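Predict the structure of LRP1B protein.
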Amino acid sequence: KLFFTDYGNAAKVERCDMDGMNRTWIVDSKIEQPTALALDLINKYVYWLDIYLESVEVVDYQGRRRQTITKGRQMRHLCGLAVFETYLYTINSDNLSILRINRYNGTDVQALARLDSAKEIRVYQKRTQAAVRSHACEVDPYGMPGGCSHICLLSSSYKARTCRCRTGFILGSDGRSCK
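Done. Here is the predicted structure for LRP1B protein.
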């Protein structure tokens, strides 16, 4: 799945398949300006930062069990969001510090370090990486991902795929080759 935020006409947190199909709103109320998103892949939770409402909140992948993690003026200057183990990590754009927030109760907010400049934060650790299994976009014997001549996107499951073409090309009637 692909998770993303939108704060155009109607602010929301959404998800869809990697090919853009099955687009679903998972949060569409009491939300104004969601600017950062982080996923707990193990427990299937979506965390987001709303700088207008000055809050960090969480829901499960279906948009249920919504909770506010923390709220207040200190949230106004945050950008970027990452989750790892017990904590959320974010950047305070006002003083360029990395903040650590307990993701279960919003307490234990601690500045860890200062940076020269930053707008985003990511945690790279072996335990945060999902195990790779056989999938529909694996390279075929001819070197084509999923049998697609240009782009292979996973669809509704790791067993299904959709072929797409680069700009200037159209998908052929076979659903795989681009012309």
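The CA atoms of residues 38 and 47 lie 5 Å apart.
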